Amino acid sequence: MKKSLKIFDSFFLLRPTLFYPVWTFFLAGYWGGMKFSRHSSNFTHPAGMFWIVISSLTLLMGGAFILNQTQDRETDRTNGKLFLLANGIVSVKKAYIEALLLTAVGLAFSFWVDLKIGLGFLILFVLSGLLYNYPPTLWKNRPIMGLVANSIGGFVIYSLGWITGGGDGGLVFHGVGYTLAGGAVFLNTTVPDMDGDRKTGKITFSVWYGVKKTVFWALMLEISGLGLAFLARDWLLFIPGIVVFPLFFLSAVKHTTDDTVRTTKFSVLALATAVCIVFPWYLVPVFFVFFFSKFYYKKRFDFDYPNFKAS
Questions:
Q1: Which residue from 120, 110, 7, 2 is spatially nearest to 54, judged by alpha carbons?
Q2: Which stretches of 80-136 are DSSP H helices?
Q3: Is residue 101 part of a domain?
Q4: Is 219 helix (H, G, I), strand (E, B) or coil?
Q5: Model pTM?
Q6: Closest by alpha carbon to 57, among 94, 11, 25?
Q7: pLDDT digits (tens, 9 = 90+) for 118-151
Q8: Model confidence pLDDT, tens digit, residues 164-220
Q9: CATH number at residue 49
Q10: Which residues contact 113 (CB under 8 A, 6 or more apart)?
Q11: Which is it for the CA torsion 125, 129, 131, 134, positive or negative?
Q12: Residue 306 domain flag
């Protein structure tokens, strides 16, 4: 079984479970663009273009996720995760070729659809693929810029959904709430890998400022995002935020890794569930990625992932 699953190694090199926040933010923006825009934009297209944009976004971000792994091999090996590149199962050369192809196709289709979409894709790739992972910026190793890059990346993805949904005016007012909420979740993701990151010289927010300050600022960003969602009457963000708020609060009080992991997982789940309510078809990729990933990692590496365990 392990050998037969090797044919899926290139697919899982994309880290498909990370597509959850990408798809969720894009669809939230798409819904917001249709619902909240003050006036329609000039972005008009056949309904099928939606699928081209979201598919191209998936390819582009898959390429960016691969580039991140090529630079984090030592850290991932120390933290005992992302085995494909970290353990040399897939070569770095093959990873770069796959990332280049995915990025090129994603960018090409995005510019074919619309200039605004194409420019948004380009900004997203430069930010998430290049500035975040490579010198001289190397923002993944900078505590503040790592947070800024991930938060802005979330805003860009939301904006791409907003534009695709035909929205124009009101984007910033609605999008900043998602930006802050995404930043809150990102801060918590830095806590579980803190020891391994420190050993390999990776300076994340939690490594530099410690757990207490990290979970405190995650709570502050969550509260700020909730406040903006309430002012914008964006219940798609507000209701899931209220549901997971107690988890952020407990994490800020208890300062344990288990609490930050639990907060991260259920935050992603809560917003994805809300999006599934307005777009029921979204349940299909959500369930497919979860169960296929669980099957692959269990059979290929005897590793229980993904899961909703606190550690």
A1: 110
A2: 83-86, 92-113, 115-125
A3: yes
A4: helix
A5: 0.94
A6: 25
A7: 999 999 999 999 999 999 999 999 999 999 999 9
A8: 988 877 899 999 999 999 999 999 999 998 988 888 888 999 999 999 999 999 999
A9: 1.10.600
A10: 45, 49, 52, 53, 56
A11: negative
A12: no
